[in-house]
Every structure is written in C-alpha cells, then in structure tokens.
Amino acid sequence: MSSRRQQKREVSPASEEYLETIYKLEEQTGSARTSDLVDQLKVAPGSITNTVESLERQGLIVHEPYRGVKLTEIGREIALRVVRRHRLLERLLTDVLHLDWTKAHEAACRLEHGATREVTDRIEETLGHPKSCPHGNPIPTESGGMLKDGSQSLESLNSGEQGVVVKITDEKPDVLEYLSNLNLVPGTAIEVEEKAPSGGSITVKVEGTSHVLSRSLAPFVWIRKESHVELETPLSDMKDGRSGVITSTRIVQGSGRAHGKEGRGRGLEKRLMDMGLTPGTRVTVVKSAPFRGPVEVLVRGSRLALGRGMAERIFVKAEE
User: Fold this and answer.
1) Three-state SS for 302?
2) Checking CA distances to 101, which of 87, 95, 177, 203 falls within 20 to 30 Å?
3) What is the CATH number of the domain that holds 21?
4) pLDDT digit string (tens) for 281-315?
5) Among 226, 258, 290, where does a domain finish?
6) Does residue 209 share a domain with residue 112?
7) The whole model's pTM is what?
8) Is 159 in a helix, a strand, or coil?
9) Containing structural domain, residue 253
10) DSSP output for 220-267
C-alpha cells in the first residue's frame, strides 16, 4: 500500500483512541500489554480483547500472546496523526484559551477526533509551529517526524546529577497538579540530592527546596542532563541583603505552584512588568518581614514593597 493511501486511511474515533494509547505505551515500555490498555482506557477486559482482534484484522497492530501488542507501520502513521492533533489542541487550549495545563489533556481527548487535517494545520500555523505540547512532549510533524529532545527519565539520574525538566509523560490531572505544586514542570532546573536504595524515593532540589518524590512518579519526569544548571530560588526565600537576577515569573496558570484563577494571572504579570520586575533584571532584597509579611526590594534604583504571594512568584538566580 502506498504512503499516500496509508495517510488517507480512516478509522473510527474509538480505534484512534486505542492506537494513540498503544503508541504512548510503546514509547514507554516497547509494547502495550492488554492489562495496560485496561488501565489507560478504563474499559472492560472483554472490550479490549474484541477491539484488539478487530485492529489486528485491519492490519493496524500485531498481537503477540503474553507479550502485548505493537503497531504496524500503518497503525503507527494513524497514531501519530492523532498524537499531532491532540498536542496541537492542547497548545491551543493553554496558549490561546488559557486553560490550565492540568485540564488540557482531557479536553483535547474530547476534541481530537473531530479536528480535520485542515483545521490541525491551521492551528499549527496560528500558534507559530510549536515543537512541544504544554507538558513538553514533542509534536509530530505533518509527515510523522518527531523531535528528539535528548532527555532521560528522572529515575535514571544519579545522586548529584543536575538537569532541566523537559517533559511530563503522564498527563493525568492529579499527577500534573502534584508535580505543578512542586514546580517540577518543563523548563525547571533540578538536582538529584539522594536516591533511596531498592527502588525507594528520590530527593530532588527544586528552586532551593528539597522534595521527596515517589519512585513511581519518577519515570514520568524526563530530564535533559547538564553538568551545570542555574538553580532558581523564589525571591521570597532570599535573605536580607542578597541580590540576584530574575530568571522567570511563574504567573500564568499551570506554570508552577503559584498558578491562579482564570484571567488573574495575566493581570499579575502586567503588574510585574509595570514595576520592572522582568527576567534579566537585577534585584536586591532589602528586608523580608516575618510571618509572611511583605518583601522590600531594590529594583533599578527604586524600592518596592511586594506582597509575600507575589514574591513567591518571582524566581531569581542568586549571586554568589
């Protein structure tokens, strides 16, 4: 069958959902076991068996008893088209409609099967051809190409190694919410402080704070390992007299532990810009009041009093 005919092949939305899930499981473990499909798709085992048999008859998968299922070339092409639509829709939902990133995955699941190729291409063009979804996972090209990000799972790093979070591969809302509260989100620098033996917990330092992470979550956090990364610190955590350079502001929804209500984040971001508190700006903590009081800072020759909540949203690379 020619490549052009493969690309035009259509399957039902339910089959697309199966192929997409099988693709993601293959990426993680090399194959998709039927028990994994039951867990991911939340359907009865009997329904899985019937659909797997149907997909195999259509030449979309190969099922090896006791070893799971794998996509055929045609099945993979269809799965990549679905993944492409899904991740571009996630971008549209978060970047344009300002939906929280923890909700984007489930919303995109409900929309992806109705988006035509023309609509998908227009979304990509409108968004400026993004390379990854809000969770950092690469967006396939129209021809099925996939960007290699050079990352590895957090569980593979050793104590003392550093890196930057590239992507989160488990997009369940509760997982994303938990990692977001720790600010383990794409773009954040981290350091592995300790790994408990025999599959125990992993202690990581994020923005100057240590967190103990369950080993069950570590495979879903992917890191690009670097020999030196600039670890950020919340402005609210800096001691009096310390200076640093602002590296980022965590205002927009879903970007970290300080994400806010709909529309509120954009207003706070504008306030910071009006005060000159933008990335690249040097700031000095003059006095940090106790009991979560305001933080007085010196910025571009002016003194400003920031509420504790706002100071927690500004991240800096402290000067030595």
Assistant:
1) strand
2) 203
3) 1.10.10.10
4) 899 999 988 877 899 999 988 899 998 878 887 88
5) 226
6) no
7) 0.69
8) coil
9) 233-318
10) GEEEEEES-----EEGGGSPTT-EEEEEEE--STTSSTT--STTHHHH
